[in-house]
Amino acid sequence: MTRRAAPAPRRIAAFAVPSEPGNERLALARVSEVVAGLGLTTARLERLKTAVAEAAMNAIEHGNNNRAEIPVEVEVLQKGTEIVVAISDSGGGPAAAEAAENPDLARKLDGEQSPRGWGLFLIRNMVDAMDVTTEGARHTVTLTMRTGGPEAEGAGHDEHV
Known about the structure:
Elements: E1 10-17, H1 24-35, H2 42-63, E2 72-79, E3 82-89, H3 96-99, H4 105-109, H5 119-126, E4 129-135, E5 138-146, H6 150-153
Helix pairs in contact: 1-2, 2-5
């Protein structure tokens, strides 16, 4: 059986937003605009928008410490039947994902775990794949969402949000 080479990634958009609270809405709106028409169902688009907003909010708040002069960079690629969104900050320090503990509702309610800390858990459960990389001071959260077709049907996520 002959395998076809995967298509080269196509950059759809690249932009930056200042690290100010609320600018995660700018990031999600722009991503939503540029992926429109690429085959995501409404439910999957909403999941991607939630993940993008949460990742951008984390980059603004935890990565860049709300310092407007340090932008959050967003890149959107299409790789065959996948939409890939990379969200990067330049805050330095340890990556939040490395130190993040999975949230435990009972422990949070008992005060044994901070009431915060749902972000990466939420992101991971909104998209088909999430990767976190750190290169020096740069942290990147990469979100992957499959578009329509058989690959998306068995993506492991219920379409009901």
